[in-house]
# Entry
Amino acid sequence: MPVVDQRSAPPAPRRRPAPRPAGRKAPSPRGRVHGLWPYALIAPAVGGMLYLLVYPLVRAVLISFQDFRLRQLIAGEAEFVGLRNYRTLLSDPRFWEVVRRTFLFMAVNVVLIMVIATLVALMVERLGRIGRTVVLCSLVLAWAMPVVAATTVFQWLFHSEFGIVNRSLTSLGLDSFDRYPWFANGTAVFAILVTLIVWQSVPFAAITLYSALTTVPLELYESARLDGAGAGRVFRSVTFPMLRPIFLLVISLEVIWTFKAFVQIWVMTRGGPGDATTILPVYAVQTALSGQRYDLGSAASMVTVVLMSGVLVLYFRQMLRQEDETR
# Structure
């Protein structure tokens, strides 16, 4: 066997590095900077949201566990008292009466809002182009009206001496409404506030539901009508099942909106007459301002948040359970 001289053998070829797959490049410092740029752009908004939303919530939670009154507000020193404020709050009979009134107020408003908004959305869907444009523009204008301005207008409408409602009813022969003091009657002012909040809330719900109605295929309606289904049957079997998620979203938003209705009540009645229009947000402010009991006011606010969250969780569970049963 011949012996090969290792010194005269040709050198082994160098192995080249495997080519990098197409579309993958080594990250560069400049690329990393560009990857962080979107986060830098949203950082001010996130920081502002944390400061305006999260910080007040955390601060309210801390105050609800402290003895925090006017002296502590000025001096800046507060004693930790644990659950004492919550025990005081939950043992107050007036608090439970306010809770009952709050749920009644929420239920009446949400039911009226959803019924009227659904009817308006169905009506808009059947109007011509001109009628649809007029109705939608009117809804947007009503929705855009500031809350305080709308509340002031309702105060003028139901003014005992100069209100157009009393003048109109008197002109129809109802002399008992001459100079009728609407805001001195608890039931009457409760109904006025419900009317105001429903009037303010229907535009958003109606426009949202109308937008969802435009996504329902027309073939489903035609098939239902060919099978002899009436308007009510078409809504129950076609429209509502198709729009169930939108109805869920709108109802959830309206529950939140009516549960925390404060400005309208505070501007119009400040919770009066008596406690006829006092709901949980108004009760929290009254408790905090009347006796400088900021700790009890914060505790009432936290209970409001918990109750509102509990209502939404129960509603979501019920809706999801119904969807699972229908599948």
In short: Residues 1-9 have pLDDT under 50 and may be disordered. The longest helix spans residues 29-64.
